[in-house]
Amino acid sequence: MNKVTLETPKATSLIDIPINLDWLHIAELMLASRALDTIEEQELVPAKLVFNQFSARGHDFAQIILGSLLTHPHDAATGYYRSRPFVMSLGIDLDDVVASPMATAGGYSDGRDIGVVCNYPNPNRTGAMLFPMCGGVGAQYSPIAGWAQSIVYHRDQLKDSHYNGAIAVSMGGDSSMSTSGFWAALNISTTHNLPHLFYIEDNGYGISVPQTEQTPGGDQVANLKAYKNLHIIEGDGTDPEQTPALIKEAVNYVRSAKGACLLRLKVPRLCGHTFQDTQTYKSPEFIADEMARDPLPKLQAFMLQQKLITAAAWQALETASVNKIQASVARAKARQQPEPGKLTRFVYAEQGQTQLRGGLAADNHRFPAQSSTPNPTGARLNMLTAIRKTLDYELETNPKVIVFGEDVGPKGGVHGATLGLHEKFGRHRVFDTSLSEEGIIGRSVGMALSGLMPVPEIQFRKYAEPAAEQLTDTGIMRWRTNNQFAAPMVVRIPGGFARRGDPWHSMSDEVEWAHKVGWQLAMPSNAEDAVGLLRFALRDNNPTIFFEHRFLLDHSWARRPYPGDEFVIPFGQAKRLTCGDKLTVVCWGAMVERCESAAKQLDIGIEVIDLRTLQPWDKEAVLSSVDKTARCLIVHEDNKTAGFGAEIAATLSEELFFSLDAPIQRLTMPDIPSPHNIHLLENALPSEQRIAQAMQNLIAV
């Protein structure tokens, strides 16, 4: 008796769509959300049991309607810090919703993340999945665009009819439309006509900044009306009759595979940005107008008018909601604190502990045979050809591998690593993207969460910086969701000096990725290692940065015979190039050839170790060698200060201090960008001669 069919109001120009909603359930959710906000503000925040409190009063009604319509098993959504009523409408456990802001054990992060930063894996596919929310404004947009693209890929390329009608929804406030993430996602989804619903809650403010400071004229949606392939719907987000009709129209539009839709609903923010925000930047008249637009009294009046509930039953429902939340708060207070002994778990994938959502492992994907023993055949290949050949084989044998980036399609990449792959595998598997690194990595997140293996390319190392937020959020995803989500991918990044250097195309700075939580980092020095490391990364359950050194791509020393389609090199296994007992030299990337050549030329007992991967790095191999030689020289291209050599030196000092016969030495680039003039570059880089001299000096100490 609590369901009612509404006709679209005649005052609007909306499509006439019947709407069946369980109004009693909607009221229950809304009252529970309000009760939780009140109890947090009046009890839990003052008691310092909750530290980050974001009320959704005013936003709540429309959010709950939207969540009630996301019933497809392959629907997915991204929210933000004010999306809690929406999350509740998806079916998340109420006790977890209450307890997570209190940072107790369990919940959706086990105390690792801010409580309002929710996630909902919904592993039984009973409706929409909620991506792990991000703390950064606008970071939610491009990942869900990747999910929208994956819907089309699963449906059309993998021929999975279960994806028919699925949609991707991104939630955001009006001010989030100013971010690069919003524009990246808008370009992705409109260019490809993807099933993406941009759901915008317009309360007129970004914290304290009004819309007039965000966009010309103070109306971003009006400025988007000329945007191609974007259907725009807008209206009131507080009216019990109009709001459901608007939301239903938008959802139906996207489900019908017509393309992207932006739904902007005007809603009041009946609170400060956070509980601590006094809103002194709003006039009393403005606040009074907001209060008059509160959707809760409107909902109550509507349900009474439609005879969906009596006044007494409404009062009983309010009381029951408060009691329900208070009981949940009591249970939350009784929960244990997170166990400190588990604090470092799930930075990386653990054997037998596969994440609930994301990556090939979560879908039990099976790979062809592999071996750590090379089976070299044919002529020596340069590293560029070896990378291309490996990508070719993995694309051929795994339909879930997708390669993309700027110029990787018909052009074959600015370095030629993907030459011919677009023609062979088609535009849905090897394709170009817009010039947006934020969008390239962001869409990779959504693809990975859908069970694909994205292989995005960042054209040069320096250009990864616009994607820094997405890269960071990807790396910490497994840890901050307590292994509920992970987004394995392989990000190919060429970098380092080539025939010339410069500050823009020749940056190395690999230490940043070694420091990024959750990322693996491979830096092959030759074609054989490139094959083994890349194949391992493409089959692994962790996100990986695969650094392709520009100087080595066609360098004669780096050429090797192709080691076979089964060859893999597990990460964290260094390679010893020369043996000796007088000095250990640790190096990687383009410095390996120079160190090996200098050691062979001197022939005085020098052991050269190529780390091959920096995260993880083979600490045991280095410690064993230095324990034998009692001396260590570390050579790398990156700047000296806080370069990865400092990590190795610190480890040796901590664990082998009394075994050392000489100070640990580092030979690196000075703390400058890569210079363009060839003579300046040669002077900045560790040359073979300088390496040889450093070896001799250290042995002589």
Estimated structural class:
alpha/beta
Unreliable stretches: 3-18
Lateral arrangement of strands in the main beta sheet = 4-3-5-6-10-9
Q: List the total number of helices.
A: 22
Determine the fraction of residues in helical runs and give it as a percent range: 25-40%
Roughly what is the average pLDDT, rounded to an integer? 94
CATH fold node name of the largest domain: Rossmann fold
Biggest pleated-sheet summary: 6 strands, parallel
What does this structure look like?
By secondary structure, the chain is α/β, with parallel strands linked by helices. It has 3 domains: 3-342, Thiamin diphosphate (ThDP)-binding fold, Pyr/PP domains (Rossmann fold); 361-562, Thiamin diphosphate (ThDP)-binding fold, Pyr/PP domains (Rossmann fold); 576-700, Rossmann fold (3-Layer(aba) Sandwich), CATH 3.40.50.920. It has 22 helices and 24 strands. It has a 6-stranded parallel beta sheet with strand order 4-3-5-6-10-9, with helices on both faces. A 5-stranded mixed beta sheet has the order 19-21-20-23-24, sandwiched between helices. It has a 4-stranded mixed beta sheet with strand order 15-17-16-22. Helix 6 (180-191) packs across helix 14 and helix 18 (591-602) crosses helix 22 (688-700). The longest helix has 24 residues, at 311-334. It is elongated and about 95 Å long. The N and C termini lie far apart (90 Å).
